């Protein structure tokens, strides 16, 4: 029953296979009498640094017998010819074995802890016979694709005879090249025979781009008869021993490839090989890039056939063998120089996960979190844009030391927050041209380089701000930002942008915003206030949201600071006095003059009128006798002045009575009170101003009935439906004008009639 239950559990919960984080070379080859050095990698945690390391040999039944360990144990077979060295700072340990024999061939494991547990890696060691021991041939080892030079000695007796090199196949020796100019077909274009001079008893054969098929025994020969000089050479073509590279998931790796100056002008490539399959080109200098590596690979050419390939944001599937090489078509081909690496991607990584793709709407913003090694907190940090050029490049857009590319000023910032292994990059005012790949880079540990893909989609920005605005020098200024309800619980802020980042500014909450259709009760307006604007206040301002140390969306607005022209400032000061106050001032002046001395008031009107109107200069040629008539005029007009004074007093009484019905006129923040009832009854005022005058006199003095309504007409008019009410300023102007006309006409009439009539 219990077995059945266990079987059911295994069916429902299948066994989970975890990949060991220990990594080393899968195959190691050598020859008898030589030595090997085997490097094993492990995660450089504090526990692993001090854990036991071992090298064991696998038996027939799967048991692994320890041969050497970091605790000092060494088996009898390894005494005096093997040692194990731990390098905790790099997370590696190295096993060195010398004086190899063919009995050392077999399956081994390098690991941590106890050999029976899974923290280990399988290594195959193959020791072959030394070709030099099998024959009297001189061995020439050469890496595949490289160049080898074979030296062939001869005696002086054969110095003038034909020299040649042939390759042995079985009992036969096929001619490869000779001094007459012959070259075998498979060697055409890559082999040459050199004879230094008649005094030198050595000729040399140089073979370029050596393929694996060139391995074998060769015979050098000088002369063609029985007395010919012959010597055997063994050409050993070696496949490149892959260099082991251990990297964490989401980190980056750089492959430094050195192929020699002979291929400096030949196309270069890097290919990836998995499970013994063909090596697929990842990138080459002819412009090809594999789709899986798009946006996260760079080819960095150098001099003399040296170049580097940098891959960022490593994935699990990136593990495998990588081969760099040179070939005219930019792809692997036998006989061309190559270099190899074996990349292991450790899934137990210390690099935090971050989105590989971020999206933002047109006109909106995106926020990118960039990881870095916490040990490099003081190192310079950058953000660059990957460009799909022939080799790929990543020009810097912004850096922590204050550099911002010109076209990104005002819309890109690099912030040190939240710190402790992460910095923030914010890009706003997004356009379609911002779509692409971007890299987070530091001057410190380059293995922490990461990439992100930015996509700009259709939509509306969440934050609402005005477009570019103008603030006036020396005046107060207010800038508002509308936040939708989804950011109700977020921290809101305003900051001023600069090359060094965005400096926070004090703000005020102005309550709910009406800029959003729904959720008005939770939407907010946050404003930036400047009491007195200075020229230094000009620039870019951002409003945004934060959730703890993490930044969210932002919106940008440019504030231009300008000074008003002097003329406009004077006009502003003049216009600042409200129209109502001007009217009241003029009426008050008239009222005061009339109340203090009616005679002087009437005389002033008469004198101004006689002189050509208000403001006209006095006529020095006026006859002296005219002063007598003026005295008569004064005595005549005193009664009329009293009537006018009574009218002014009536106006004051009416104003006091109707104080509660006051309309306020506001012009440029100055206020004045004008009683609209004063001007609504202006026609009554006009009638009373002419009480005691006959209709004919009214008609004569004002030029006709059409220009002035009599008391009877006013009574009839008051019974008609009320006309549309005019503005306070219009009413005031009309009342004041009527008042002046009445005073003027009275004075004019009296003057025309003369002293006798008076």
Overview of this protein structure:
The chain has 758 residues and is α+β, with helices and mostly antiparallel strands. It is built from twelve helices and 42 strands. A five-stranded mixed sheet has the order 1-8-7-3-4, with no helix packed on it. Strand 29 and strand 30 form a beta hairpin. The longest helix is centred in the C-terminal third of the chain and has 32 residues. The chain is elongated. The N and C termini lie far apart (142 Å). The N terminus and C terminus are likely disordered. It comes from Ovis aries. This is Polymeric immunoglobulin receptor.
Keywords:
5-stranded mixed β-sheet; 758 residues; disordered N terminus; 42 strands; single chain; alpha+beta; elongated; disordered C terminus
Shape: elongated
Strand line-up in the sheet with most strands: 1-8-7-3-4
Unreliable runs: 1-17, 516-520, 573-633, 660-725, 747-758
Number of helical regions: 12
Residue-averaged pLDDT, rounded?
78
- The radius of gyration over CA amounts to 51 Å
Range of strand content? 35-45%
Separation, N- and C-terminal Cα atoms: 142 Å
* Biggest sheet record: 5 strands, mixed
**Which structural class fits the helix and strand makeup?**
alpha+beta
Number of strands: 42
Helical content band: 10-25%
Protein name: Polymeric immunoglobulin receptor
């Amino acid at each position: 029953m219990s077995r059945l239950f266990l079987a059911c559990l295994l069916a429902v919960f299948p066994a989970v296979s975890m990949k060991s984080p220990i990594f080393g070379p899968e195959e190691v080859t050598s020859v008898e009498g030589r030595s090997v050095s085997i490097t094993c990698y492990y995660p450089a945690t504090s526990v692993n640094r001090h854990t036991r390391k071992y090298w064991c040999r696998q038996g027939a039944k799967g048991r692994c017998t320890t041969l050497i360990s970091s605790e000092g144990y060494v088996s009898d077979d390894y005494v005096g010819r093997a040692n194990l060295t731990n390098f905790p700072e790099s997370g590696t340990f190295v096993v060195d074995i010398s004086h190899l024999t063919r009995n050392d061939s077999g399956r081994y494991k390098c690991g941590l802890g106890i050999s029976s547990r899974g923290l280990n890696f399988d290594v195959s060691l193959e020791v072959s016979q030394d070709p030099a021991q099998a024959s009297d041939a001189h061995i020439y080892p050469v890496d595949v694709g490289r160049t080898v030079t074979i030296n062939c000695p001869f005696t002086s007796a054969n110095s003038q005879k034909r020299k040649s090199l042939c390759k042995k196949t079985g009992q036969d020796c096929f001619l490869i090249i000779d001094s007459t100019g012959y070259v075998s077909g498979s060697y055409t274009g890559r082999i040459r025979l050199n004879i230094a001079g008649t005094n030198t008893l050595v000729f040399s054969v140089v073979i370029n781009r050596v393929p694996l098929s060139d391995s074998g025994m060769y015979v050098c020969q000088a002369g063609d008869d029985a007395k010919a000089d012959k010597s055997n050479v063994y050409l050993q073509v070696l496949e490149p021993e892959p260099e082991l590279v251990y990297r964490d998931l989401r980190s980056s790796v750089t492959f430094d490839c050195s192929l020699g100056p002979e291929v400096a002008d030949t196309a270069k490539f890097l290919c990836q090989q998995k499970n013994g399959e063909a090596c697929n080109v990842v990138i080459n200098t002819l412009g090809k890039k594999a789709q899986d590596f798009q946006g996260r690979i760079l080819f960095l050419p150098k001099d003399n056939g040296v170049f580097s390939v940098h891959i960022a944001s490593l994935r699990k599937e990136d593990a495998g063998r990588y081969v760099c090489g040179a070939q005219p078509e930019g792809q692997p081909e036998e006989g061309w120089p190559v270099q190899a690496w074996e990349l292991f991607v450790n899934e137990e990584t210390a690099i935090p996960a971050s989105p590989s793709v971020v999206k933002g709407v047109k006109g909106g913003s995106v926020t990118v979190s960039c990881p870095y090694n916490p040990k490099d907190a003081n190192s310079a940090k950058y953000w660059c844009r990957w460009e799909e050029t022939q080799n790929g490049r990543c020009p810097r857009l912004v850096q922590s030391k204050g550099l911002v590319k010109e076209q990104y000023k005002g819309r890109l910032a690099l912030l040190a927050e939240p710190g402790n292994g992460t910095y923030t990059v914010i890009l706003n005012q997004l356009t379609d041209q911002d779509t692409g790949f971007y890299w987070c880079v530091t001057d410190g540990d380059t293995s922490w380089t990461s990439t992100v893909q930015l996509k700009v989609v259709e939509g509306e920005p969440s934050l609402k701000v005005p477009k570019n605005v103008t603030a006036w020098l020396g005046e107060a200024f207010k800038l508002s930002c509308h936040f939708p309800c989804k950011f109700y619980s977020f921290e809101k802020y305003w900051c001023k942008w600069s090359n060094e980042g965005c400096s926070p500014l004090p703000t005020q909450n102005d309550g709910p915003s009406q800029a959003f259709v729904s959720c008005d009760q939770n939407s907010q307006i946050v404003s930036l206030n400047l009491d007195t604007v200075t020229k230094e206040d000009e620039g870019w301002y951002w409003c945004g949201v934060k959730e703890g140390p993490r930044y969210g969306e932002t919106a940008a607005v440019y504030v231009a600071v300008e000074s008003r022209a002097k003329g406009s400032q004077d006009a502003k000061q003049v216009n600042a006095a409200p129209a109502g106050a001007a009217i009241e001032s003029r009426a008050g002046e008239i009222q005061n003059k009339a109340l203090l001395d009616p005679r002087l008031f009437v005389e002033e009107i008469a004198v101004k009128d006689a002189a050509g109107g208000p403001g006209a200069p006095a006529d020095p040629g006026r006859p002296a006798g005219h002063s007598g008539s003026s005295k008569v005029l004064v005595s005549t007009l005193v009664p009329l002045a009293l009537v006018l004074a009574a009218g002014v007093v009536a106006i004051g009484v009416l104003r006091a009575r109707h104080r509660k019905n006051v309309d306020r006129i506001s012009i440029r923040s100055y206020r004045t009170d004008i009683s609209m009832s004063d001007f609504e009854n202006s026609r009554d005022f006009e009638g009373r101003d002419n009480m005691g005058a006959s209709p004919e006199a009214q008609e004569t003095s004002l030029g006709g009935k059409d220009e002035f309504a009599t008391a009877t007409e006013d009574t009839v008019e008051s019974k008609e439906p009320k006309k549309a009410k005019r503005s306070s300023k219009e009413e005031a102007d009309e009342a004041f004008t009527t008042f002046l006309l009445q005073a003027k006409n009275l004075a004019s009439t009296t003057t025309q009639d003369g002293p006798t009539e008076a």
